[in-house]
């Protein structure tokens, strides 16, 4: 794997896309009452305001990608790619389960 490229790893780009979709659908589901935030930390953040919630979600996503891209370029590209694939798979699985629960008529929580 070429560590000299300035391009973002495909797994990290995919994670950004899924993260943004997750954020948007979470906001819609919360607004329409189809779901609640079950993460107690993010539920507390949400009580501080939607803007704070969105900012923290975007910040944590960007921080993760920045750290993994730094690690890829400076330490181990293969390890960063492996962690990225595990993270992407896990995030997608959790999102798919949440999506299935919301669309089956269940309210998460």
Describe this entry's structure for a reader.
- The protein is mainly α and 109 residues long.
- The chain is built from 4 helices and no strands.
- The chain has helices at 10-32, 40-47, 50-74, 77-103.
- The protein has one domain (11-103).
- Helices cover 76% and strands 0% of the residues.
- The chain starts with 9 loop residues before the first helix and ends in a 6-residue tail after the last helix.
- The mean pLDDT is 86.
Mean pLDDT: 86
Number of domains in the coordinates? 1
Q: Which regions are unreliable across 5 or more consecutive residues at pLDDT < 50?
A: none
Helix content: over 70%
Number of helices: 4
The separation of the N and C termini measures 42 Å
What is the makeup of the main sheet?
A: none
Structural class: mainly alpha
Radius of gyration of CA atoms, rounded to a whole number: 16 Å
Number of β-strand runs: 0
H/E series: HHHH
Shape type:
globular
Bin the strand percentage. Answer: under 5%
């Amino acid at each position: 794997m070429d560590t000299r490229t300035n391009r973002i790893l495909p797994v990290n780009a995919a994670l950004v896309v899924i993260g943004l979709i997750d954020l948007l659908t979470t906001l819609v589901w919360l607004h329409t009452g189809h779901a609640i935030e079950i993460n107690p930390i993010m539920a507390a953040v949400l009580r501080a305001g939607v803007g704070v919630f969105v900012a923290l979600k975007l910040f944590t996503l960007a921080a993760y990608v920045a750290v993994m891209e730094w690690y890829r370029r400076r330490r181990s590209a293969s390890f960063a790619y492996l962690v990225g694939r595990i993270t992407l798979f896990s995030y997608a699985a959790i999102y798919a389960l949440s999506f299935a629960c919301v669309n089956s008529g269940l309210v998460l929580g």
